[in-house]
Amino acid sequence: MVVGRFLVTKHFLPLIKNDGTGKLIYITSKSVSISAPDHHGEVTGYGMAKAAANQQLKSLALDFQRDNVPITTLAFEPGFIKTKLTGWLGRVDIEEACTGMVDIIEKLSPDMSGLFMNWNGKTIPWSGGRQMSSDSNRRVVLESSSSTRE
Asked: What pTM was computed for the model?
């Protein structure tokens, strides 16, 4: 899961850069968030793969900003979806989650690059309650608000 996503991104980036602008979106999972109150590590391998994807997007966001590349990155957590696979125990309808994500993608701006969000636009902390942001090519650590957790 980690290598495949990396290679697809590696080979598509030149095409996106040639276009002059773009959005790089990954679907990941809240299981990467070690700061989530309900994180118990029961899906460690899955969480590690998704955390690698989030880290790749965060690193790309900082690189793009530093190099003035107009590509916006975003990691999405679609929620616990009601599907046959989840035994219909999910809390979110697939249509609701998809509509929410499409709305956010359409409104996505470069200042949102590198964020990890859920399907309804709430930022999810995933790095021990802290998030990295780039400010004029300097890395600044920002405390995440407890109100951003869902």
From this structure: 0.76
**Tokens representing 122?**
């709430």
- CATH of residue 106's domain is 3.40.50.720
Range of the domain at 52: 2-148
Going from the C-alpha of 116 to that of each of 15, 18, 25, 75, 134, the distances in angstroms are 24, 26, 10, 5, 15
Among 56, 71, 81, 43, which residue's Cα sits nearest to residue 4? 56
Q: Which two tokens stand for residue 43?
A: 């899906």
Number of folded domains that form the chain: 1
Kindly tell me if the per-residue pLDDT of 129 is higher than 90.
Answer: no
pLDDT band at 82 (very low <50, low <70, confident <90, very high): very high
pLDDT digits (tens, 9 = 90+) for 40-49: 566 778 888 8
The DSSP line for 11-51 is: HHHHHHHHHT-EEEEEE--GGG-TTSTT---TTHHHHHHHH
Q: What's the pLDDT band for 28 if we cut at 50, 70, 90?
A: very high
Cα–Cα distance measured from residue 105 to residue 85, given in angstroms and rounded to the nearest whole number: 26
